[in-house]
Specification:
Blueprint (H helix, E strand, L loop, with lengths): L1 E4 L5 H8 L2 H5 L9 H11 L5 E8 L2 E11 L2 E8 L8 H16 L5 E7 L3 H9 L3 E8 L2 E9 L4
Parallel strand pairs: 4-5
Antiparallel strand pairs: 1-2, 2-3, 3-4, 5-7, 6-7
The structure holds coenzyme A (COA).
The site of coenzyme A has 21 residues, from β4, α4, β5 and α5.
Amino acid sequence: MIIRTAQIFDSDSVYNIANQDSVRLVSFSQNAINRADHKKWFENIIKKKNVILLIIIFEKVIVGYIRFDIKDKEAEISIVLLDSYQNRGLGKIALKKSIEILISKFAEVNYIIAFVLSENSRSTYFFEKNKFIYKGNSIIKSRKAKKYVYEIINK
Ligand SMILES: CC(C)(COP(=O)(O)OP(=O)(O)OC[C@H]1O[C@@H](n2cnc3c(N)ncnc32)[C@H](O)[C@@H]1OP(=O)(O)O)[C@@H](O)C(=O)NCCC(=O)NCCS
């Protein structure tokens, strides 16, 4: 597996992954994403100093992405794989590698936060299995979310 920083030419790949029906269903904004809106969003996000957008490549295929939004000592994570590459252990490997990249770029970050729709049991299980600790519920865009926190200890 290769993980690298997103470049401008990755826009369509990220769009296709984010816009999968299965992914919209477990997202806080469920509507399909408009391609033009995505392009603007993408161009903006890869320029941001406080965002790391990583592309996950497996057997030469772009299979997913991971985004960290960094604010002070916390990084909020979003991780998404193509449907056909889920549930094969790739998420676990990508998560581990991406945390190493996060630490190398933002040494001050101590916590990674994940907000997951309560009904997204695959994802809640995924974070729990990968040492994220459940910290209670919150409401995001009128929907019930579970908050998970991972503490970065060994830098
Ligand atoms: C969440 C996600 C990144 C996990 O990546 P992944 O490669 O599928 O995860 P892994 O294969 O490493 O682990 C999946 C685990 O969930 C289990 N699982 C699969 N389907 C499940 C389900 N419906 N309910 C509960 N657990 C499930 C698998 O058995 C596996 O556990 P195991 O290692 O004990 O066998 C990926 O599923 C995904 O992209 N989901 C859609 C987007 C999303 O919800 N992102 C998270 C919000 S930020």
